[in-house]
Amino acid sequence: MKKPGHWLSLFRPYTLLLAATLAVAAAGCWASADDSDPLQFDDTPLEDLLQYPDWFKNSFLELDDDLKEAIAAGKKGIIVYFGQKRCAYCKMLIERNFTTPDIVKYTRENFDVIPIDIWSPESVTTPGGESLSERDYAQQLGTNFTPSLVFYDVDGHVALRLRGYYPPYQFRAALEYVADGHYKRENFATYMARGDKTLRFEPGDLIEEPFFAQPPYNLDRSHFPAELPLVVFFEQGDCHACDILHTEPLRRTTLRKLFDRFDSVQLDMWADTPLVKPDGTRSTARDWAKELGIFYAPTIVFFDEQGKEIIRVDSVVHFFRLRNVLNYVVSRGYVTEPNFLRWSSRTRRVLDEPDQEQNASR
Question: Pick from 98, 84, 81, 85: which is nearest to 50 by CA?
């Protein structure tokens, strides 16, 4: 049984609440202000349009000027929020994280938050002075999932990118990673791993699936191209988000049938399990996860038949999003459309036809 640790050696005294939240997470208890689980929600598109918090900056979308104003106000930079009005993951960020008092207070003290609609044709000027549409700006920054947050520092450099929804304790860590300048010394994966080591005292069992390949793991595709794409699950023991992945979306017949069209491997991201990577070189699960910059469990990484990474899901994921990603890969949609969201919007009418299994589960 793991004992909760703390990150007080990493953060300022302000982060006592973060350390307490991490300890709660390690103990497997995710109580929030309303006693609901921030990882449990329906991710189908919203019926009602999502509204931004009233404290988001009412910007003219001249981000170079917005950054100057933030600096003049003594802030550490700006956060550009890329979202969609019917995105369930965006709703969780706005209605859970951005209603948590300490997160709101800390965010507003250190950053101005500027919303971008990823489908809007309206013009935006980037911190670097480039003018383009909001839609093209989102695609330029590789926004495959919403919400995506891009943190710009006072010099107009990207300090951190978050793609997808993260629960409050990890979101707090991301805010402090940028505001406290840790990004100047180490990447976010190293920062998170360094703090998370205090929460791991002994390995925990992973939840296996019948479609996972068994060791030894020879994933070499550079010398011997495979017939099927590869999906690698990077997980860890005593992982609440991993448990939800296995007990909810991965129990769905629709997804299990799709995984029959992949070579699937599960790895403990902290283990020294030997393997041969898709590029043919030898490594361990731990070293490969570090090389890939993985900081969130579970992270699901997809590779094509030649071993090239296609897309990864390294944030909270449920049925609707995971199904679309799987379809994107098996249909080879990435060959003609490298932006997942753009591909998804074009195929939504087909993929969103009534799903009897999904309707029965509501």
Answer: 85
Residue 126: which CATH number?
3.40.30.10
Angular region, 181: left φ>0, alpha ψ -120 to 50, beta rest: left
> In whole angstroms, what is the distance from residue 326 CA to residue 318 CA?
12
Please name which of 271, 284, 200, 192 lies closest in space to residue 235, comparing C-alpha atoms.
271
Q: Are residues 170 and 250 in the same domain?
A: no
Q: What is the pLDDT of residues 188-220, one digit of tens each?
A: 999 998 766 545 545 568 999 999 999 999 999
Contacts 24+ apart (CB under 8 A), 97-100: 97/38, 97/166, 97/167, 97/168, 97/171, 98/53, 99/53, 100/32, 100/33, 100/168
**Which residue range forms the structural domain that includes residue 304?**
217-361
Please tell me the distance from the alpha carbon of residue 189 to that of residue 197, in angstroms, as a whole number: 12
CB atoms under 10 Å from CB of 283, counted, come to: 18
The whole model's pTM is what?
0.86
Q: What is the dihedral of CA 74, 79, 80, 82, to 10 degrees?
A: -160
Same domain for 223 and 185, yes or no, is no
What is the rounded end-to-end Cα distance, in angstroms, of the chain?
35
Task: Tell whether 194 and 50 lie within a shared domain.
Answer: yes
Q: Please write the tens of the pLDDT for every residue from 57-103.
A: 999 999 999 999 999 999 999 999 999 999 999 999 999 999 999 99
Edge-to-edge strands of the sheet including 299-303?
263-268, 230-235, 299-303, 309-313
Q: What is the DSSP string of 332-354?
A: THHHH---HHHHHHHHHHHHTS-
